[in-house]
Design goal:
The chain has helices at residues 3-16, 32-43, 62-77, 89-95, 113-118, 134-141, 167-177, 192-200; strands spanning 50-54, 81-85, 99-103, 106-111, 124-129, 147-153, 156-161, 184-188. It is of the alpha+beta class. The strands form three sheets. The protein has a four-stranded antiparallel beta sheet. Strands 1-2 form a two-stranded parallel sheet. The chain has a two-stranded antiparallel sheet with strand order 3-4. 19% of the residues are buried.
């Protein structure tokens, strides 16, 4: 790039990445979020066909993460192809058109976030907080009508259900019928985290 084009492009990118007011600052004076935005801006100065980002929001505070998400959406809407790696399932769900779930170097699934969430054969996930043998509770709840499967983790049991109305009441009743006390119940739709755990299991990764 010639000097004039490079200056023009730099000014435009500083505006786009909300860094124009820091144009004269030393890099070491920037916050973590600003530095990450600057690195992405630098990576697209030459208009690459594909932008590769390796965990671009790792270690950022929530505000900085949201700001970078907004910028990545702007780039994508402008026609930029982005290849993104992340451990944040919410990030993949919000930003990506297609998601590949990998484990030990192998692609286990590749589809849109919506289709991946449909793949676990559940439209409702109920989290049960209780005490005692949660694995035994999970086995019992997996047998209730409408349940496709159940698992444990983070000191709760997750029950995956399809086509069940009144899911909280039914799961609560089934928990008490199994001889367990319900400490807390919550209900949600399946998430990419649910898909990831279902495909890869709960063993810790190196």
């Amino acid at each position: 790039m010639g000097a004039r084009d490079s200056r023009r492009t730099a000014d435009r990118l500083l505006e786009q990445f909300r860094l124009a007011d820091r144009a004269s600052a030393e890099v070491f004076q920037l916050s973590g979020g600003m530095a990450q935005r600057l690195m992405v801006a630098r990576a697209i100065v030459h208009s690459p066909r594909i932008l590769f980002l390796d965990e671009p929001t790792s270690g950022l505070d929530p505000q900085s993460r949201l700001a970078l998400w907004d910028i990545l959406r702007e780039l994508h809407r402008g026609g930029q192809t982005i290849m993104l790696t992340t451990h944040y399932m919410e990030e993949a769900d919000r930003l990506c058109d297609r998601v590949a779930i990998m484990d030990h170097g192998k692609v286990l699934a590749l589809d849109s976030p919506r289709m991946l969430k449909r793949s676990i054969d559940a439209d409702t996930v109920v989290r049960v907080s209780s005490e005692g043998d949660l694995h035994a509770l999970a086995e019992r709840l997996a047998q209730m009508p409408g349940a496709t499967h159940a698992d444990t983790g983070d000191a709760v049991v997750r029950v995956y259900l399809r086509g069940v109305t009144g899911a909280l009441r039914r799961v609560g009743d089934a928990t008490e019928a199994a001889g367990f006390r319900v400490n807390d119940l919550s209900v949600a739709e399946p998430t990419l985290e649910s898909v990831f755990i279902t495909l890869t299991g709960r063993d810790l990764r190196d």
